[in-house]
Each structure stands twice: as C-alpha cells, then as structure tokens.
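Slack export, channel: ligand-projects

TW: morning all. Re-posting the request from yesterday since it got buried. We need the structure predicted with the small molecule present, not the apo form. The ligand is nicotinamide-adenine-dinucleotide; the SMILES is in the block with the sequence. No rush, but it would help planning for next week.
GE: picking it up
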Amino acid sequence: MSGRVAGKVALVTGAAMGLGEAIARALAREGAAVMLTDREVDKGEAVASDIAASGGKARFRAHDVAVEADWEAAVAATLEAFGGLDVLVNNAGVSGGMLPLLEHSLEDWRRIMAVNLDGVFLGMRHAGPAMVARGGGSVINLSSILGKVGLAHAAAYCASKGGVTLLTKAAAIEWAPLGIRVNSLHPGFIDTPMVANALHAVENGNEMRVALMAAHPMGRFGVPAEIASAVLFLASDESRFMTGAELVVDGGYTAQ
Ligand SMILES: NC(=O)c1ccc[n+]([C@@H]2O[C@H](COP(=O)([O-])OP(=O)(O)OC[C@H]3O[C@@H](n4cnc5c(N)ncnc54)[C@H](O)[C@@H]3O)[C@@H](O)[C@H]2O)c1
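GE: finished. pasting the full token output, ligand included:
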C-alpha cells in the first residue's frame, strides 16, 4: 500500500460537492479508505462510485450532521465497512446567506449553529470513541477565515466558525494524551457551490465577487484542491507534532 495516508480510514462529511468532494478524492488517491457522507444522496453516491471506479476505496452514507442518530449510524457504518476510524474531517457546513443582524431571526441562527457547530461537536463526540479504540487519530475541523475575523451580514456564520476554532483547541488539549490530534483549517474564499450560490443570491453578486477577490492579497479565490492538500497534510503523519493549531489557507486574507 502506498500513499501519504495509506492504510488509514477517513470519514468526510459534506463530501457530495465542493471542498468535501475534493478532500475525499485526495484522501482516497493517497491510499485512505474513505466513508463519504452528506445529506445530498444522489451526488454523494456518484462521487463515491467515481472514486471506487478509479481504484480508490470509498463508500457513501446519507447523513445529516445536525442529527445525533445519523452520527451513530455513520460511525457504525464506517467501522463495519473498513474496520476502524483514523481520520475525521468535519467539513459539512452552511453559509446561511447574507443575514443583517438587525433582521436576523432566531431560526436562522439556530439552523446555522446546528450544522456548523453542533455538527462538529457531534462528530467528535461519536468518532472519538472509535479513535480511542484505535489508539489515536486525526480530526480536522473546517473553520474559516471567518472563524478568526468578522464579516458584516455573517454574524451567525462567524460565531459558528469561531466556536469551531476554540472547540478544536479544547478537544486538542483533552485528547493529546489519547493520541488524537485535533486541528482547525481556515480557508479563505474558495470557488465552491457555497460561494457561487451565496453570490448568486444577492443583487450585486458580480461586484461582490470582484471586491472579495481583491480582499485576498493574492487577488483571487482559492480552488478546492488547495484546501484538500492542507487536509491531506493534517490527516497524514507528516503533521504528527501538530495539534490545536489553526492552519490558514487564505491567499493572505487574514495577514492584513
Ligand atoms: N467555500 C469557501 O469559501 C469556504 C471558506 C471557508 C470555510 N468553508 C467551509 O468549508 C466547508 C465546505 O464548504 P463548501 O464551500 O464546500 O460548501 P458547499 O455548500 O459547496 O458544500 C457543502 C456540502 O455539505 C453538505 N451539507 C450541508 N449541510 C449538511 C448537513 N446538515 N449534513 C450533511 N451534509 C451537509 C452539502 O449538501 C454539500 O454537499 C463548510 O464547513 C464551509 O463553511 C468554505
């Protein structure tokens, strides 16, 4: 078996498209057996089949990360399919769209928190015991640049991602003696369906796209492969002395 994560078993949430799809493909290409999960069943199954057709080890399972029973079933399915769990990528998330705080409903707040923050807590809560049984593992939590700095009209998203940043550090300290590393990843704006849909939903989407690109010193959005390679590093033993860290991949956005 060869590859940077050969022999490892990974569970990637939100793997039907966008960053999760690129992450699942990269982990499988580098030798991991990957359980892809998502609430988008047809798209998720198509990605898993495509990985398997090109020689990778992949399965798909329907999963809403905000639902605890779904987590129990997803972890059990991973153990049954691949015999263990070494890498958890808590990637599933929602942007919630542009929500001015003066008009923000409690429902919107709860919807965003349920996926972006409860989902990450539940993932660690349910994958943790399987990693303990394995003698260690690596958890990669998708935060954001917006888990480090604020953005107008994105209060709930920023709060959820800021929560992920510190949930990650607390878990990293608690689980270091157990051999489980927990790191957060902070992408800048990346070309995915999430960003395309958010820009499509506002009247001045094209102008916003140009302005947001200009906010990255590199003058562009990232592409999913640039995030997938950072996940690969955190999942592999190459990062074995890293835990509780914030890995920023943002074209310089937060350097300013
Ligand atoms: N794209 C960016 O610019 C960017 C930047 C920083 C952080 N992020 C974070 O990276 C992650 C992936 O973002 P993306 O851009 O690929 O998003 P996306 O919308 O393109 O894809 C997200 C995937 O997650 C799935 N999903 C959403 N809610 C779910 C739920 N409750 N249960 C299971 N699956 C669910 C969707 O079906 C979809 O397949 C998110 O956590 C996002 O907040 C994205």
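GE: first-pass observations. The longest strand covers residues 180-187. DSSP finds eight helices and seven strands in the chain.
TW: perfect, thank you
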